[in-house]
Amino acid sequence: MNPAICRRLLPYLRALSLLLATATGLATAQPLAAPAPAPLPSAVEAALARARLPRDALSVLVIDAQDGRAPARLSYRAQVPVNPASVMKLVTTYAALDQLGPAYTWNTPVYVDGTVRGGSLKGNVYIRGQGDPKLVMERLWLLLRRLQGQGIQVIVGDIVLDRSAFDLAGHDPALFDGEPLRPYNAAPDALLLNFKSVVMGFVPDVGAGVAHIQYDPPMSGVQRPDSVVLAAPGTGCGDWRGALRADLGDPVRTVFQGAYPAACGERSWAVAHADPQAFAARAVEGMWRTLGGKLTGSVREGKVPAGLQPVFSATSPSLAEVVRDVNKFSNNVMAQHVFLAPALQKNGVATWDGAREVLRQWWLQRFGAEGQPVTDNGAGLSREARISAQALGRMLQAAWQSPVMPELVASLPVAGIDGTLRRSKSRTGSAHLKTGSLRDVLAVAGYVHADDGRRYVLVAIVNHPQAAAARPVFDALIDWTAGVP
Questions:
Q1: Backbone angles phi, psi at 475, to 5 degrees
Q2: What is the DSSP string of 186-209?
Q3: Nearest to residue 226, comparing CAs of 249, 256, 270, 250?
Q4: CATH superfamily of 107-166+278-315
Q5: Nearest to 461 by CA among 38, 56, 176
Q6: Alpha carbon of 69 to those of 28, 39, 367, 372, 388: distances in Å?
Q7: How far apart are CA 217 and CA 203, in angstroms?
Q8: This prediction's pTM
Q9: For residue 112, which of 304, 298, 296 has the smallest C-alpha distance?
Q10: Per CATH, domain 42-104+318-482 is 3.40.710.10
Q11: Per-residue pLDDT tens digits for 364-415
Protein backbone atom coordinates (compact mmCIF):
# COMPACT_ATOMS: atom_id res chain seq x y z
CA MET A 1 0.00 0.00 0.00
CA ASN A 2 1.15 3.52 -0.76
CA PRO A 3 2.99 4.92 2.36
CA ALA A 4 1.17 8.23 2.12
CA ILE A 5 -2.19 6.45 2.21
CA CYS A 6 -1.05 4.38 5.22
CA ARG A 7 -0.11 7.52 7.11
CA ARG A 8 -3.57 8.97 6.47
CA LEU A 9 -5.31 5.72 7.63
CA LEU A 10 -3.20 5.22 10.77
CA PRO A 11 -5.40 7.28 13.20
CA TYR A 12 -8.47 5.42 12.02
CA LEU A 13 -6.79 2.04 12.50
CA ARG A 14 -5.74 2.97 16.04
CA ALA A 15 -9.28 4.05 16.94
CA LEU A 16 -10.67 0.80 15.50
CA SER A 17 -8.13 -1.21 17.50
CA LEU A 18 -9.11 0.56 20.73
CA LEU A 19 -12.80 0.00 20.03
CA LEU A 20 -12.24 -3.72 19.41
CA ALA A 21 -10.21 -4.05 22.61
CA THR A 22 -12.94 -2.35 24.65
CA ALA A 23 -15.61 -4.57 23.13
CA THR A 24 -13.56 -7.67 23.89
CA GLY A 25 -13.10 -6.52 27.49
CA LEU A 26 -16.82 -5.95 27.93
CA ALA A 27 -17.57 -9.38 26.51
CA THR A 28 -15.18 -11.16 28.87
CA ALA A 29 -15.46 -9.02 32.06
CA GLN A 30 -17.02 -10.67 35.11
CA PRO A 31 -20.05 -8.92 36.74
CA LEU A 32 -19.19 -6.71 39.74
CA ALA A 33 -19.58 -8.53 43.04
CA ALA A 34 -22.35 -7.29 45.34
CA PRO A 35 -20.99 -5.37 48.33
CA ALA A 36 -20.34 -7.64 51.27
CA PRO A 37 -22.84 -7.27 54.10
CA ALA A 38 -21.60 -5.21 57.03
CA PRO A 39 -19.83 -7.46 59.54
CA LEU A 40 -21.45 -8.00 62.92
CA PRO A 41 -19.45 -8.96 66.00
CA SER A 42 -19.00 -12.73 66.20
CA ALA A 43 -20.82 -12.93 69.55
CA VAL A 44 -23.79 -11.12 68.01
CA GLU A 45 -23.78 -13.41 64.96
CA ALA A 46 -23.74 -16.43 67.27
CA ALA A 47 -26.60 -15.04 69.38
CA LEU A 48 -28.67 -14.41 66.23
CA ALA A 49 -28.05 -17.97 65.09
CA ARG A 50 -29.08 -19.41 68.45
CA ALA A 51 -32.24 -17.27 68.41
CA ARG A 52 -32.94 -18.39 64.82
CA LEU A 53 -33.21 -14.81 63.72
CA PRO A 54 -32.01 -13.67 60.29
CA ARG A 55 -29.41 -10.90 60.20
CA ASP A 56 -31.82 -8.64 58.33
CA ALA A 57 -34.23 -8.69 61.27
CA LEU A 58 -31.72 -6.49 63.11
CA SER A 59 -31.00 -2.78 62.76
CA VAL A 60 -28.06 -1.59 64.87
CA LEU A 61 -25.91 1.48 65.34
CA VAL A 62 -23.01 2.06 67.73
CA ILE A 63 -21.46 5.53 67.65
CA ASP A 64 -19.36 7.68 69.96
CA ALA A 65 -21.67 9.67 72.24
CA GLN A 66 -19.30 12.63 72.50
CA ASP A 67 -17.63 12.87 69.08
CA GLY A 68 -20.15 13.47 66.31
CA ARG A 69 -17.38 13.38 63.67
CA ALA A 70 -16.09 9.92 64.57
CA PRO A 71 -17.09 7.12 62.19
CA ALA A 72 -19.69 4.64 63.40
CA ARG A 73 -18.17 1.80 65.33
CA LEU A 74 -20.94 -0.48 64.04
CA SER A 75 -23.70 0.25 61.55
CA TYR A 76 -25.99 -2.36 60.05
CA ARG A 77 -29.30 -1.48 58.35
CA ALA A 78 -29.16 1.72 60.41
CA GLN A 79 -30.94 3.84 57.80
CA VAL A 80 -34.01 1.60 57.53
CA PRO A 81 -37.13 2.99 59.29
CA VAL A 82 -38.46 0.34 61.67
CA ASN A 83 -41.01 0.02 64.47
CA PRO A 84 -39.15 0.96 67.68
CA ALA A 85 -41.88 -0.01 70.22
CA SER A 86 -41.35 1.83 73.52
CA VAL A 87 -37.92 3.10 72.52
CA MET A 88 -39.96 5.87 70.86
CA LYS A 89 -40.39 7.24 74.40
CA LEU A 90 -36.82 8.52 74.13
CA VAL A 91 -37.90 10.93 71.39
CA THR A 92 -40.94 12.03 73.40
CA THR A 93 -39.10 12.54 76.68
CA TYR A 94 -36.02 14.25 75.27
CA ALA A 95 -38.18 16.59 73.17
CA ALA A 96 -40.25 17.53 76.24
CA LEU A 97 -37.18 18.07 78.44
CA ASP A 98 -35.60 20.20 75.72
CA GLN A 99 -38.72 22.31 75.11
CA LEU A 100 -40.25 22.59 78.59
CA GLY A 101 -37.22 22.16 80.87
CA PRO A 102 -36.76 19.52 83.59
CA ALA A 103 -38.46 21.67 86.27
CA TYR A 104 -41.74 21.95 84.33
CA THR A 105 -44.84 20.94 86.32
CA TRP A 106 -48.54 20.42 85.65
CA ASN A 107 -51.11 22.26 87.78
CA THR A 108 -54.61 21.07 88.65
CA PRO A 109 -56.58 24.13 89.83
CA VAL A 110 -59.56 23.75 92.18
CA TYR A 111 -62.39 26.32 92.23
CA VAL A 112 -65.17 26.99 94.73
CA ASP A 113 -68.31 28.66 93.40
CA GLY A 114 -70.58 29.53 96.32
CA THR A 115 -70.53 30.51 99.97
CA VAL A 116 -69.08 28.51 102.85
CA ARG A 117 -70.73 28.62 106.28
CA GLY A 118 -70.39 26.23 109.17
CA GLY A 119 -68.44 23.68 107.13
CA SER A 120 -70.99 23.63 104.28
CA LEU A 121 -70.55 24.95 100.77
CA LYS A 122 -73.73 26.03 99.05
CA GLY A 123 -72.55 25.74 95.48
CA ASN A 124 -70.20 23.70 93.35
CA VAL A 125 -66.59 22.64 93.46
CA TYR A 126 -64.72 22.56 90.13
CA ILE A 127 -61.58 20.54 89.47
CA ARG A 128 -59.87 21.43 86.20
CA GLY A 129 -57.57 18.79 84.77
CA GLN A 130 -54.60 20.06 82.81
CA GLY A 131 -52.88 16.84 81.96
CA ASP A 132 -51.06 15.94 85.20
CA PRO A 133 -49.73 12.45 84.37
CA LYS A 134 -49.20 11.47 88.01
CA LEU A 135 -52.37 12.42 89.85
CA VAL A 136 -52.34 9.10 91.68
CA MET A 137 -54.41 8.06 94.66
CA GLU A 138 -52.15 9.63 97.28
CA ARG A 139 -52.15 12.98 95.50
CA LEU A 140 -55.94 12.86 94.99
CA TRP A 141 -56.22 12.30 98.75
CA LEU A 142 -54.04 15.37 99.38
CA LEU A 143 -56.04 17.47 96.92
CA LEU A 144 -59.34 16.67 98.63
CA ARG A 145 -57.84 17.13 102.11
CA ARG A 146 -56.69 20.55 100.97
CA LEU A 147 -60.25 21.27 99.83
CA GLN A 148 -61.44 20.34 103.32
CA GLY A 149 -58.81 22.74 104.61
CA GLN A 150 -60.88 25.51 103.00
CA GLY A 151 -63.48 24.79 105.69
CA ILE A 152 -65.62 22.52 103.49
CA GLN A 153 -66.99 19.25 104.84
CA VAL A 154 -70.36 19.26 103.11
CA ILE A 155 -70.95 20.23 99.49
CA VAL A 156 -74.55 21.25 98.92
CA GLY A 157 -74.13 21.04 95.19
CA ASP A 158 -71.90 19.12 92.77
CA ILE A 159 -68.24 18.37 92.19
CA VAL A 160 -67.65 19.25 88.55
CA LEU A 161 -64.74 17.77 86.60
CA ASP A 162 -63.42 19.92 83.75
CA ARG A 163 -61.47 17.82 81.23
CA SER A 164 -61.57 20.27 78.34
CA ALA A 165 -57.79 20.80 78.18
CA PHE A 166 -57.54 17.64 76.04
CA ASP A 167 -59.51 17.32 72.82
CA LEU A 168 -58.85 13.71 71.85
CA ALA A 169 -60.85 11.25 69.80
CA GLY A 170 -62.67 8.45 71.62
CA HIS A 171 -60.45 5.57 72.67
CA ASP A 172 -61.24 1.85 72.64
CA PRO A 173 -58.90 0.22 75.20
CA ALA A 174 -59.38 -3.16 73.52
CA LEU A 175 -58.36 -1.91 70.06
CA PHE A 176 -54.59 -2.40 70.29
CA ASP A 177 -54.39 -5.98 71.56
CA GLY A 178 -57.81 -7.02 72.86
CA GLU A 179 -56.78 -6.45 76.52
CA PRO A 180 -58.99 -3.57 77.74
CA LEU A 181 -58.32 -4.24 81.43
CA ARG A 182 -54.54 -3.92 81.14
CA PRO A 183 -53.43 -0.57 82.63
CA TYR A 184 -51.00 0.01 79.76
CA ASN A 185 -54.01 0.46 77.44
CA ALA A 186 -55.43 3.40 79.46
CA ALA A 187 -56.11 6.51 77.37
CA PRO A 188 -54.77 10.00 78.14
CA ASP A 189 -57.18 12.26 79.99
CA ALA A 190 -56.88 15.89 81.06
CA LEU A 191 -57.94 14.66 84.52
CA LEU A 192 -56.10 11.35 84.66
CA LEU A 193 -56.60 9.79 88.10
CA ASN A 194 -54.52 6.80 89.20
CA PHE A 195 -53.97 5.83 85.55
CA LYS A 196 -57.70 4.88 85.44
CA SER A 197 -56.77 1.74 87.33
CA VAL A 198 -57.69 0.07 90.61
CA VAL A 199 -55.01 -1.72 92.62
CA MET A 200 -56.32 -4.76 94.51
CA GLY A 201 -54.19 -5.87 97.46
CA PHE A 202 -54.55 -9.48 98.74
CA VAL A 203 -53.46 -10.38 102.28
CA PRO A 204 -53.90 -14.04 103.31
CA ASP A 205 -55.37 -14.77 106.76
CA VAL A 206 -54.87 -18.51 107.28
CA GLY A 207 -56.74 -18.52 110.60
CA ALA A 208 -59.85 -17.05 108.99
CA GLY A 209 -59.46 -19.08 105.79
CA VAL A 210 -59.64 -15.99 103.58
CA ALA A 211 -57.49 -13.39 101.89
CA HIS A 212 -58.53 -9.86 102.78
CA ILE A 213 -58.80 -7.48 99.82
CA GLN A 214 -58.06 -3.77 99.79
CA TYR A 215 -59.01 -1.61 96.81
CA ASP A 216 -57.26 1.64 95.93
CA PRO A 217 -58.65 4.12 95.21
CA PRO A 218 -62.08 3.73 96.82
CA MET A 219 -64.75 3.83 94.11
CA SER A 220 -68.26 5.17 94.62
CA GLY A 221 -71.13 2.95 93.54
CA VAL A 222 -69.06 -0.21 92.98
CA GLN A 223 -69.86 -3.45 94.83
CA ARG A 224 -66.68 -5.31 95.74
CA PRO A 225 -66.08 -8.20 98.14
CA ASP A 226 -63.71 -7.51 101.02
CA SER A 227 -62.28 -11.06 101.00
CA VAL A 228 -61.89 -14.21 98.94
CA VAL A 229 -61.55 -17.78 100.20
CA LEU A 230 -58.10 -19.33 100.44
CA ALA A 231 -57.16 -22.25 98.21
CA ALA A 232 -56.66 -25.71 99.71
CA PRO A 233 -53.58 -26.04 101.96
CA GLY A 234 -50.47 -26.94 100.00
CA THR A 235 -51.63 -25.21 96.82
CA GLY A 236 -48.70 -23.52 95.15
CA CYS A 237 -48.78 -19.89 94.07
CA GLY A 238 -48.54 -20.48 90.32
CA ASP A 239 -51.08 -18.56 88.25
CA TRP A 240 -52.74 -16.94 91.24
CA ARG A 241 -54.62 -14.39 89.14
CA GLY A 242 -56.17 -17.16 87.08
CA ALA A 243 -56.99 -19.10 90.26
CA LEU A 244 -59.12 -16.18 91.49
CA ARG A 245 -61.44 -16.56 88.47
CA ALA A 246 -62.21 -12.88 88.65
CA ASP A 247 -65.05 -11.26 86.75
CA LEU A 248 -63.86 -7.67 86.24
CA GLY A 249 -65.92 -6.74 83.20
CA ASP A 250 -68.81 -5.18 85.13
CA PRO A 251 -67.89 -1.59 86.11
CA VAL A 252 -70.19 -1.61 89.18
CA ARG A 253 -69.58 -5.14 90.49
CA THR A 254 -66.44 -7.21 91.09
CA VAL A 255 -66.77 -10.98 91.56
CA PHE A 256 -64.24 -13.68 92.51
CA GLN A 257 -65.40 -17.23 91.82
CA GLY A 258 -62.13 -18.94 92.67
CA ALA A 259 -59.67 -18.93 95.56
CA TYR A 260 -56.41 -17.27 96.55
CA PRO A 261 -53.33 -19.45 97.35
CA ALA A 262 -51.93 -18.61 100.78
CA ALA A 263 -48.48 -19.59 99.45
CA CYS A 264 -48.44 -16.33 97.46
CA GLY A 265 -48.25 -14.19 100.57
CA GLU A 266 -49.23 -10.57 99.99
CA ARG A 267 -49.75 -9.64 96.36
CA SER A 268 -51.22 -6.74 94.41
CA TRP A 269 -52.99 -6.63 91.07
CA ALA A 270 -53.56 -3.45 89.06
CA VAL A 271 -56.57 -3.55 86.73
CA ALA A 272 -57.93 -0.86 84.43
CA HIS A 273 -61.53 0.08 85.22
CA ALA A 274 -64.11 -1.44 82.90
CA ASP A 275 -65.72 1.98 82.33
CA PRO A 276 -62.72 4.33 82.00
CA GLN A 277 -64.84 7.38 81.18
CA ALA A 278 -66.62 7.12 84.54
CA PHE A 279 -63.49 6.31 86.53
CA ALA A 280 -62.62 9.86 87.61
CA ALA A 281 -66.12 10.62 88.90
CA ARG A 282 -66.30 7.38 90.89
CA ALA A 283 -62.79 7.87 92.30
CA VAL A 284 -63.37 11.48 93.35
CA GLU A 285 -66.67 10.73 95.05
CA GLY A 286 -65.30 7.57 96.66
CA MET A 287 -62.28 9.39 98.06
CA TRP A 288 -64.35 12.39 99.23
CA ARG A 289 -66.71 10.16 101.19
CA THR A 290 -63.82 8.08 102.58
CA LEU A 291 -62.41 11.33 103.99
CA GLY A 292 -65.70 11.95 105.77
CA GLY A 293 -66.94 14.52 103.28
CA LYS A 294 -70.60 14.72 102.32
CA LEU A 295 -72.07 15.51 98.92
CA THR A 296 -75.75 16.25 98.28
CA GLY A 297 -75.38 16.42 94.51
CA SER A 298 -73.19 14.33 92.20
CA VAL A 299 -69.78 14.25 90.59
CA ARG A 300 -70.28 15.20 86.97
CA GLU A 301 -68.47 16.65 83.97
CA GLY A 302 -68.62 20.31 83.01
CA LYS A 303 -66.56 23.45 82.51
CA VAL A 304 -65.29 26.00 84.98
CA PRO A 305 -67.40 29.20 84.72
CA ALA A 306 -65.60 32.08 83.01
CA GLY A 307 -63.93 34.49 85.42
CA LEU A 308 -63.90 32.11 88.41
CA GLN A 309 -60.52 32.10 90.16
CA PRO A 310 -59.00 28.97 91.74
CA VAL A 311 -58.71 28.74 95.52
CA PHE A 312 -55.60 26.56 95.14
CA SER A 313 -53.76 24.34 92.65
CA ALA A 314 -52.30 20.89 93.11
CA THR A 315 -48.82 20.77 91.54
CA SER A 316 -47.39 17.65 89.95
CA PRO A 317 -43.89 16.27 90.38
CA SER A 318 -41.38 17.85 88.00
CA LEU A 319 -41.04 16.75 84.40
CA ALA A 320 -37.67 15.19 85.28
CA GLU A 321 -39.38 12.94 87.84
CA VAL A 322 -42.18 12.07 85.44
CA VAL A 323 -39.69 11.25 82.67
CA ARG A 324 -37.92 8.90 85.07
CA ASP A 325 -41.18 6.97 85.63
CA VAL A 326 -41.88 6.93 81.90
CA ASN A 327 -38.50 5.51 80.90
CA LYS A 328 -37.62 3.32 83.88
CA PHE A 329 -40.97 1.52 83.84
CA SER A 330 -42.18 2.25 80.29
CA ASN A 331 -45.46 3.81 81.43
CA ASN A 332 -47.50 4.33 78.26
CA VAL A 333 -50.21 6.72 79.41
CA MET A 334 -47.68 8.95 81.21
CA ALA A 335 -45.60 9.03 78.02
CA GLN A 336 -48.63 10.14 76.04
CA HIS A 337 -49.25 12.95 78.54
CA VAL A 338 -45.62 14.06 78.15
CA PHE A 339 -46.09 13.94 74.37
CA LEU A 340 -49.20 16.14 74.61
CA ALA A 341 -47.70 18.66 77.07
CA PRO A 342 -45.76 20.87 74.59
CA ALA A 343 -48.86 21.15 72.38
CA LEU A 344 -50.98 22.09 75.41
CA GLN A 345 -48.46 24.79 76.32
CA LYS A 346 -48.37 26.14 72.78
CA ASN A 347 -52.04 25.88 71.74
CA GLY A 348 -54.00 25.97 75.01
CA VAL A 349 -55.72 22.68 74.13
CA ALA A 350 -53.92 19.40 73.44
CA THR A 351 -54.79 17.32 70.38
CA TRP A 352 -52.96 14.42 68.78
CA ASP A 353 -52.38 16.34 65.56
CA GLY A 354 -51.13 19.33 67.53
CA ALA A 355 -48.68 17.19 69.49
CA ARG A 356 -47.33 15.54 66.32
CA GLU A 357 -46.88 18.92 64.65
CA VAL A 358 -45.05 20.43 67.62
CA LEU A 359 -42.67 17.47 67.72
CA ARG A 360 -42.21 17.57 63.93
CA GLN A 361 -41.23 21.24 64.11
CA TRP A 362 -38.87 20.57 67.02
CA TRP A 363 -37.15 17.76 65.09
CA LEU A 364 -36.89 19.95 61.99
CA GLN A 365 -35.20 22.73 63.97
CA ARG A 366 -32.81 20.38 65.78
CA PHE A 367 -31.98 17.79 63.11
CA GLY A 368 -33.43 18.90 59.79
CA ALA A 369 -35.88 17.04 57.58
CA GLU A 370 -33.83 13.84 57.37
CA GLY A 371 -34.90 10.99 59.62
CA GLN A 372 -38.19 12.53 60.77
CA PRO A 373 -39.82 9.92 63.04
CA VAL A 374 -43.41 8.78 62.70
CA THR A 375 -44.40 9.29 66.33
CA ASP A 376 -48.11 8.36 66.31
CA ASN A 377 -49.02 8.65 70.04
CA GLY A 378 -45.47 9.21 71.29
CA ALA A 379 -45.45 6.14 73.54
CA GLY A 380 -44.47 3.44 71.04
CA LEU A 381 -47.69 1.53 71.75
CA SER A 382 -48.34 1.59 68.03
CA ARG A 383 -48.07 -0.41 64.83
CA GLU A 384 -47.53 2.76 62.79
CA ALA A 385 -44.60 4.34 64.67
CA ARG A 386 -41.31 4.36 62.73
CA ILE A 387 -37.76 5.63 63.18
CA SER A 388 -34.36 4.52 61.92
CA ALA A 389 -31.50 3.49 64.19
CA GLN A 390 -29.43 6.24 62.58
CA ALA A 391 -31.98 8.98 63.32
CA LEU A 392 -32.44 7.83 66.90
CA GLY A 393 -28.69 7.50 67.38
CA ARG A 394 -28.13 11.03 66.07
CA MET A 395 -30.74 12.34 68.50
CA LEU A 396 -29.10 10.52 71.41
CA GLN A 397 -25.73 11.97 70.41
CA ALA A 398 -27.25 15.47 70.54
CA ALA A 399 -28.94 14.68 73.86
CA TRP A 400 -25.57 13.70 75.38
CA GLN A 401 -24.26 17.19 74.59
CA SER A 402 -27.41 18.98 75.83
CA PRO A 403 -28.06 20.67 79.21
CA VAL A 404 -30.77 18.09 80.02
CA MET A 405 -28.46 15.10 79.50
CA PRO A 406 -28.24 14.27 83.24
CA GLU A 407 -32.04 14.09 83.59
CA LEU A 408 -32.46 11.96 80.46
CA VAL A 409 -29.69 9.50 81.29
CA ALA A 410 -30.84 9.17 84.91
CA SER A 411 -34.29 8.21 83.64
CA LEU A 412 -33.02 5.15 81.76
CA PRO A 413 -32.99 1.62 83.22
CA VAL A 414 -29.54 0.40 84.27
CA ALA A 415 -28.47 -2.97 82.88
CA GLY A 416 -28.95 -5.73 85.44
CA ILE A 417 -30.07 -3.33 88.18
CA ASP A 418 -33.48 -1.71 87.77
CA GLY A 419 -36.50 -0.88 85.67
CA THR A 420 -37.14 -2.91 82.55
CA LEU A 421 -33.43 -3.91 82.33
CA ARG A 422 -33.13 -5.53 85.73
CA ARG A 423 -33.07 -9.04 84.19
CA SER A 424 -30.47 -8.21 81.55
CA LYS A 425 -27.64 -10.76 81.37
CA SER A 426 -25.11 -8.20 80.13
CA ARG A 427 -22.47 -6.81 82.48
CA THR A 428 -24.27 -5.25 85.45
CA GLY A 429 -24.23 -1.48 85.45
CA SER A 430 -22.55 -1.16 82.05
CA ALA A 431 -25.38 0.65 80.27
CA HIS A 432 -28.32 3.03 80.62
CA LEU A 433 -30.84 1.89 78.02
CA LYS A 434 -34.53 2.28 77.23
CA THR A 435 -36.19 -0.97 76.26
CA GLY A 436 -39.13 -1.60 73.97
CA SER A 437 -41.24 -4.64 73.20
CA LEU A 438 -44.35 -5.38 71.21
CA ARG A 439 -45.48 -8.44 69.35
CA ASP A 440 -42.84 -8.78 66.57
CA VAL A 441 -40.65 -5.98 68.00
CA LEU A 442 -37.81 -5.85 70.53
CA ALA A 443 -35.53 -2.85 70.98
CA VAL A 444 -32.96 -1.13 73.19
CA ALA A 445 -31.43 2.32 72.87
CA GLY A 446 -29.34 4.57 75.04
CA TYR A 447 -25.78 4.76 76.33
CA VAL A 448 -23.10 2.15 77.04
CA HIS A 449 -20.11 2.88 79.28
CA ALA A 450 -17.06 1.19 77.79
CA ASP A 451 -14.05 -0.21 79.59
CA ASP A 452 -11.80 2.38 77.91
CA GLY A 453 -13.76 5.20 79.55
CA ARG A 454 -15.62 6.21 76.40
CA ARG A 455 -19.39 6.53 76.16
CA TYR A 456 -21.20 5.06 73.19
CA VAL A 457 -24.70 5.43 71.83
CA LEU A 458 -26.25 2.02 71.14
CA VAL A 459 -29.46 1.55 69.18
CA ALA A 460 -30.58 -2.01 68.38
CA ILE A 461 -34.02 -2.91 67.04
CA VAL A 462 -35.40 -6.25 65.86
CA ASN A 463 -38.57 -6.43 63.76
CA HIS A 464 -39.47 -10.09 63.24
CA PRO A 465 -42.20 -12.55 64.30
CA GLN A 466 -39.63 -14.14 66.66
CA ALA A 467 -38.37 -10.82 68.03
CA ALA A 468 -38.92 -11.90 71.64
CA ALA A 469 -35.96 -14.30 71.24
CA ALA A 470 -33.56 -11.40 70.63
CA ARG A 471 -32.72 -10.55 74.25
CA PRO A 472 -29.42 -12.50 74.21
CA VAL A 473 -28.54 -10.67 70.98
CA PHE A 474 -28.91 -7.35 72.79
CA ASP A 475 -26.91 -8.61 75.77
CA ALA A 476 -24.10 -9.57 73.36
CA LEU A 477 -24.26 -6.13 71.71
CA ILE A 478 -24.11 -4.35 75.08
CA ASP A 479 -21.10 -6.40 76.17
CA TRP A 480 -19.32 -5.93 72.83
CA THR A 481 -19.89 -2.18 72.96
CA ALA A 482 -18.60 -2.05 76.53
CA GLY A 483 -15.49 -4.01 75.51
CA VAL A 484 -16.31 -7.06 77.62
CA PRO A 485 -14.03 -9.92 76.48
A1: -60, -40
A2: PPP-TT-BGGGEEEEEEEEETTTT
A3: 256
A4: D-Ala-D-Ala carboxypeptidase C, peptidase S13 (3.50.80.20)
A5: 56
A6: 43, 21, 15, 21, 19
A7: 17
A8: 0.90
A9: 304
A10: yes
A11: 999 999 999 999 999 999 999 999 999 999 999 999 999 999 999 999 999 9
